[in-house]
Each structure stands twice: as structure tokens, then as C-alpha cells.
Request: fold
Amino acid sequence: MSQLVSTIINNDSVEFACEAHETLLEVLRDRLGLTGAKEGCGTGDCGACSVILDGALVCSCLVLGAEAQDRNIETVEGMADGAKLHPLQTKFLEHAALQCGICTPGFLIAAKALLTNNPDPTEEEIRYALAGNLCRCTGYDKIVRAVQDAAKQMRRA
Amino acid sequence: MTYDTQFTGQTFKSVGTRPLRPDGIDKVTGRARYGADYNLPGQLTGLILRSPHAHARIKKIDTRKAEKLKGVKAVITSTDLPDLTDGDSELFDILDNCMARKKVFYDGHAVAAVAAIDAKTARAALKLIKVDYQVLSHVTDVDEATKPKAPLLHRNCFTEGIEPKPAKASNIASRSEFGHGDVEVGFEQADVVVERNFKTEQTHQGYIEPHACVASFGPDGSAEMWVCTQGHFTFRQQCAALLGMPLSKLRVTSTEIGGGFGGKTHIWAEPVALALSRKANRPVKLVMSREEVFRASGPTSATSIDIKIGVKKDGTITAADAVLRYSNGPYPGVWAMLGAMTSFACYDLKNVRTVGLEVLVNRPKTTAYRAPSAPMAAFAVESMVDELADKIGMDPVAFRIKNAAKEGTKSSYGPVYGPIGIGPTLEAARKHPHMKAKLGKNQGRGMACGFWFNFGGQTCADLNIAVDGSVTLTVGTIDVGGARASLALVAAEELGIDYDDVKAVVGDTASLGHNDMTDGSRGTFSSSMAAIMAARNAIEELKNRAAKMWEIPVKNVIWEDGHAKAKGRGKKYAKLAPLSLADIAAETPNTGGPIAGYSELVADGAGVSFATHICDVEVDPETGRTQVVRYTVIQDAGKAVHPTYVEGQYQGGAAQGIGWALNEEYIYGADGRLQNPGFLDYRIPVCSDLPMIDTQILEIPNPNHPYGVRGVGETSIVPPLAAIANAVSDAVDVRMTHVPMSAPRILKALKTEH
Reply:
């Protein structure tokens, strides 16, 4: 039995129908065509499905679609302002903070959540804030540098 | 094909710069489409039923109830993938691994599959399939499997490579041997001989993207497939062979790939998705869960390695001997052979022998994992090299430099080396500030070397010049981490135009001739060679067109700095201003039509690769927990085409090696079931586990590549296991012989030895 859910995704009002067992990740990907969030594990261990829900970083595979009612959701698709990339997106490109790129949407969202709460994080704070996001390609070095650089630029802005 | 081998002083305009990658915007905005991001109209959801047993005979599979469930469109078993392999045992093993026939050989082995209108229905259908198993005794440990009374996986497995053929079947599928000289004589000459057994546990490539494909089979027998793969041409070849269809009728498109590291060089779900689609006559999407990825795909070998090395007091290694047992899963492979070939490749040895034993166990079919088999062998050898240096009172770097292979050395696996980087990486390590930095309490430093062959292989590329002068380079090797940027740089270099005017794309199997997989660190090496040749062919045609436009003989046209220039005497030539590539392209409709450069080649001469790593660790003596506090990678790249992505390869390989060294392992219960098929319990390094990873790129040109390029992707995972083991040994004075050096294992070693 489906239920109708009204929510806000990337500042757009969205309505969708979903069954009680469907996760927010399934809804985003399979019902709404927002495939930027990825399923790496489905158990909340890899962070590839990270989204921001009412300002909090969550794994969308651990949230039910029905829980999105009257909530505010930010996904990677909403990070850029039209053609203008978010500083994190720009810095990830400049630092080559991605190789295969499958974890990148999750890292960008997690880093955005971090910098919203802490605009001037230490390296250690960055590393712990991103510890819920797995990357198998980069060894994290260039990701941490990209976040440091983006934070610097955002503080100046 | 011969190439210019004069590299000294070769200067580059584009190669060696660090532009943004062409696929970058899509990947930071969520637009890039990976395997699971593809969908087709009318698509069904496919799911696979897997064995809960490590070893069992399949007595009967009853699918009738599942077939009757509303919304189920196809149910298949091995009878829907009949054996068409015609005596090709390797292909048969692939088939049997994709869908078990008489027996299941590991926990997670596929036995049946369904396609249904949605995932919920497919899941319900799986529960309705009844499989009647006769459970057999099993063996998962590599050493246990070699014992005479071990449960046999295959009754007809008689060790190959032994004369005469053994009379008794065993789990040792084959034996290989490499080396030269006489090790017994060598050991007699030694002042010190050390002998030890080393063990490494099985690890998974751990790519974040699970295997995913969409298959669409038409009633005319043609099919299309979108799949995350390291080699869509090879996938096509194998799938077509298993499904009994001509290659031309199966078109495969490689999606963006979310990591592979060797793990996406094998087919698992793809023939199943195709067979489901064929039966249901609708597109089928099949995506593995993370649990399935761990239980049924990957992993690398678990190993047990005996090493014996003899040295003189002056530091000369007189003999080196190794027996390497590598688990292969249930089907014979070449994993111990690769271990045997790579073991002593860093050294110049008079007497060396390595023996590889391929051991069959009730675990998933072993798959390539980044420099497959080399890290384990290097762990054993480089740990012992450190121990020997210590025993004779020599600095470990100096000891390695003394014995390092060089140009002209006959390698332990046969070939004689050309110009190589082992000596230079060791010299760079010796001079590196990291080696002199002060260590804190409970900290230790280790270093180790690593080798990988690198590979070339069949390659085909197509370079098209558009009428506006922009260029599309179509390659057939998958881009696993920035290769399109590197290949566009190479094409721009050769044509003499801007990087931004070249767009590199990966073509599907219908658009190019066969390309081998992106494996063996060959992607940028081989496709850059093809791109250079394609560009050179295009330049010949550009010169023809310029000659036509100028009405002069083509022999009087040269190509320089992205322009055709007229070389000749007289007023006429003086007036001919250079024509840019864009000038010539604009006139192509009038001078003979489009211009394309094409290249098809076997990229021979992939230069071998060496690295030296330095590592500092801190070991907590209370808990045994080890933290890597500093890490440096020094590796020869031949020529770094895009240095930032070369650094990325160095860092990524080191990080995977750190995970392998300290934490990652497949844990099987006594019941033969995998106990940690998830990222929570199979813990790969997270951001807070690692320090920054410093890199130093050395460039010792590969004489077989026009720009001197060597593959760079794999070698970086070879030294870390040993480098970290040596650092741990330095920190707590315990020689670790079992990887991963997890906290409990270190604690146990501390208690035993102290």
C-alpha cells in the first residue's frame, strides 16, 4: 500500500508515492530520478548515499521515504547554483579529490554539512567528520586538502 | 613497430601539466551515470539466489512456486545457461561460477535467479525456490587444503606441472617454478640463513560501487548491456560465448565505474542478467548488494609463504628460495604463479628459486586485486630482507641498494631488465627527509620495495577532427580514475593543440575494435600509445589537405606546433602562412571530407615498475592498535602524463595496502560461512585512520613508449604490507609474520615474544 509524501528537495516542492518499506535512497533514485546519491552498502556504513535532512547529515539508506513528509532535503544535485559550482565542488575538481567518483556526492554533502557547522575545521576535525564516508581510490589525502581549501575560500567570501 | 627511444631532453607542452578532468563536472554534480544509474523502459529487477553452504551437492532445485508468483517474469538455473564451452575449461569455470551446476563450492555461490516486476516481488520469489542440498565437508584454509586428508573440491584435480602426473587427486591445482642458479650452493656460501613462514589473509578490492548491469535481449537474438566493468570488450566476449551468440550481436557499453582494482575484470552477474532478459524478453537490471559483493565477487588470495634467504656478512644475498601457496577459490588460476614471479623481482640474485602452488579452497573464485599476488610475496620477502639487514648489522636501505636489480640484471622470473627504477627509488628513499625525521614514543619506521610487471595488450583508438577544429578521441579502455584527462593531454601534445580542444571519451563495443581490459596498469600506457599513433595518422592527412589547399607537393609540408608549415624555396612558399589544425579542418568539406586518425596495435613493452615506501607507525602497547603516522611513496612513473592523478594512484594503492596490513580480512566460521560480509565488520581505512600520504614521482623513461610512459596504477599496493610490518617490528621489537596485523594479533605477538 503506497502513501503520498510531500517534501522539499533542493528547494523544490516534491510529491511522491512510496511503500512503507522503501528507503529515502530508493525513493530518490528509483522514483525521483535523483541518482546522485549512491548505494554502496545499504547499511549506513559507506556514506555514498549521504544527504542533508533538516540540516543534519544522514545516510538516506537508513531513512524511510515516508519519513520525508514535511522535511527539507538537500542532495548533491542541489549543491551548485545553476552553472556556478559550490566551492567544495570546484576544489574537489582542482585537487583531483576524486578518482572513480562514486563516493564523491557523499563526500561533498558530508563536507558541506561539516563546513556549515564549523567553517574553520582542523585537519583532524575534517578527518573525523568524513570518517563515515568511504573512499577506496584516493587514500583521502586529496579529499582532505580540497575541503581545507574550500573552507578557506568560503571563509573569505 | 619501433619507437623513438631518445628521451633525454624530450620536452612537452601538454604532457606533465595538471588540467581539470573532462568527466569532472558530471562527477561533482551527481550527473555521472554509474552501473546502477541506468534504467530502461519496461525493466525488470533481477536477483540471485546464493548457496548458504561452503560445499554441497545440488540434488534438486524446484522453481515451480517461484514461477507461479504474480509479477515474476523469469526464473533461471544452470539449465538456462547450458554448457557451450566446448572443452574450454577456463570458460567452463567462469560459467560454473556464474551459476553453480552439480555442486556449490562456497558460501554465496549462485544457484538460481529471478526477474520480477519489482525488488519486493523478486525477493519473495527467491524465498519460494527450494534447493535440495547434500552438504559436503569443506576446507577454507589454504594450508589445511593442502593436507592429504583435506576435503577434495574436485575429484579429478591432479596437480599440473609435476612430472610424472600425481596418482592421487588433491586441492593443489598446479605447480610453477621460476629462478636460476643453484640455491643449495648459494646457501652454502652464506654466513647467515633465515627461514620463516608468512601468512596473509584474504582481502577484497572493496570498490564502493557494487556490480551492476542492465541487460536487454531482443527476440531477434541481439542484446545490449550497460555495465560497470574494467573491460567491456572482454565482458562481451565472455558473455557471448556463454550465451551462444555472435559477438556482433551483443553491444556492451561501459558505464562510469565506481572502482574496480581488478575486481571488475571478471563476469559474475552479467551472463545471468542476459539469460534472465532472454527468458523474460524484457530488460533486466541486476545490482549486487554489498553482502553479495563480499560473498561472491573479488577477493584476492589468502597465502602461506615459506621464505629462505642466505647472505654474506658483507651484505651480498647468496641465495633466495620461496614456496608460495595461494588460495584460488574453487577454480584453478595463476595467483601463486604471479606471486612466485614477483617475489624477488627487486633484486639481482645469482641463485634464486620460487615455487608457486595454486590451492583450491571453498571460498569465492579469486580475482585480480591491484598488482595481483605481488603484495603478499613482497610482505614475506621484504620482511625477511629487513630481518637479514638487522642480523648482519647493515642499514636496510643500504642492504637493498647493494642487492638491487639494475639494467642488465636477469630477473628472478626470467627476462633481463632494461632501464629500471628500483635503484633510483631506493636512493631517493635514502635521501628523503622522512628517513631522518625523529620518532616518538612507541613509534617505529619501516621501509620496503615493490615490483609490478605492467601490461600492454590489444588496443584500438579513433581520433576524429571536427570541422571546427575540435578533436574527439575515442578509446576502448575504461577510465578508472582520470585516464580521459591523461589521454586528452597526449592527443593534444601530439597534435600541438590545446588540451581544451580535445575531448576523450570511452567508446562502446560497437564503435571500436577489440580492446583488452583496463588491467595490469595498462589503461594510460596502452591507450596513450594508440592515441599517439592515431594522432600521427591524422597529421599525415592534415598535411595532405594543407598541400591540397596550397597546391604544393605534400613532401614540402611539415607539422609543427599544431600547424602545417610549407617548407620550400621561392616567393610562392614565402607567402604561405602556416595553417592551423582549425584552418585545415574548416576546409575539409572541400578538400576530401572528414579527417580521422585510427590506431590498432598490441602495446608491447610496458616497462616494469618499482616503488619504495617509507612508513612510520605508532603501536599502542596496551591494546595493540597501530596507527600509521607518516607515509611516503616513491615510485617510477616513466613519464607522469598528469602528475596529480599519478600521485592519486600512489596514494590510493598505499591506502589499500595499509588496510590490508592492519585490518582487512575475510573471516570464515567453522561452518564455512563468511562472517563479515559488510563494511562494518570488514573495515577498510576511513579518513581518520590515515595521515596525509606523501608522494615522490621519479621518471625513468620506458624506452618502449614514445613519451617514456610506464603504467602507474598497481605497484603502490605492493610495498605497504612489508613496510608497515617492518615499522611495527621497529616500534615494538616483534617480527610480525601474519597479515593483517590487527590489534589482537599484535597484542598476542607482544605477549608471546616479550
Summary: Confidence is low (pLDDT under 50) at residues 1-5 of chain B. The longest helix of chain B spans residues 523-550.
